[in-house]
Write the structure tokens for this entry.
Amino acid sequence: MSIFGTDGIRGHVGQFPIDPESMVRLGHGIAKVLCKDRLKPKVLIGKDTRLSGYLLESALEAGLIASGVDVLLTGPIPTPAVGYLTKAMRADLGLVISASHNPFTDNGIKFILPSGDKVSGQQTLDLEQYFHMQVQMKAGHAFGKATRVDGAVHRYVERCKSKLLFVPNLRRLKVVLDCANGAAYQCAKLVFEELNADVVTIHDKPNGLNINDHCGATDVASLVQKVLEVGADCGLAFDGDGDRLMMVDHKGQVFNGDDILWCLSLNVMRYRQLEGCVKTVMSNGAMDELFSKRGIACETVAVGDQHVMARLKSKHWFLGAEPSGHILTLDASSMGDAIIAGLLALETMLLLEKPLCELRLPYRFQQVSGSLKLDQGINQVELGKKIDRFELSLAANIRSVIRPSGTEPKLRYLFEGDYNLIEIEKNFKAEFSGEI
């Protein structure tokens, strides 16, 4: 089974490959695979707020320096900030030490090319062999060196603010920001305050252990409560590394990625002639009908923002999203950026002079979705066969998506249609109880 999932490497801290020795070897592998043709390679490393980030950063840095790579260290900043700075500082690669929405006990490594793309499948295969090899150090005079990037947060803040093009500021809006005790805890508040919004922040005091702990994009209950408590126009929830966004309107209704995509598509100043957008198989099927009525194409791809990105680029389109909150606005950012997506949603509200509650999907098909925990050592081939048998047993008018997660040991599921979905979900859980 591959070390790499759908979003880089991720796992439990202290267990292979999220351990110091593996990180040193990974640094060596990066030098050999991703920087092999560079005369003086340079890699930029950012991280979220997990306590284990210090350990993994030092080990990764050691492997890179020993292999002749210069390292730029930013400290805690969102994943899209790493993407931006990688390109701005002419680095050959950006690395993010993060496990995104996972608990603090997990960590991982995301790889970002200057283009905003992720490394190819072949490159991940080439990297994997180095996890089982001894590091071959350069001679002392050929070591790389490490440099701390001064002002990384403020450079990214200015980048985000520059994307608000069609309204002068956010002065009329009161917003609540849930920073998930993660990478956005410094920059998110600065962006919205400097654009003159009335800002209330929650979960913006990371201690290394509380990242994503009943907060952020994966748990918006406290955001809903705070929005209603302070009478805010809306709330924005980021995940641990700042590339996912969920929103809450002034009534406490939650906007997922589908709703945010629909909201952004209504910004006629920014997207005057919107040809199409991209969603995933986990998105609500009503989106096809709704976009079609507006003469806008809506194409569906497999789960993963890399698939959304690839389709957008092939079509020369700008907008795509996953229900989980990965929002791609390629006119404003080369990769998913939760803060920028949030700014564009607020820009849409102000331009249309409408509250957020009027900018969600007008209707949606019935769905149930969730996940079951999986045994780490489960036979994937047999699991796949069992999934196929269950899906064949469903009525023809039921759409189903059942898949192992690429980031956690979980089996994710979605059922959509007008049949008794609760009963289907109950049967599914009973059928797969042996896999939990």
Q: What stands out?
A: The longest helix spans residues 52-66. Residues 32 and 334 are 26 Å apart (CA to CA). The first strand starts at residue 4 and ends at 5. The mean pLDDT is 95.
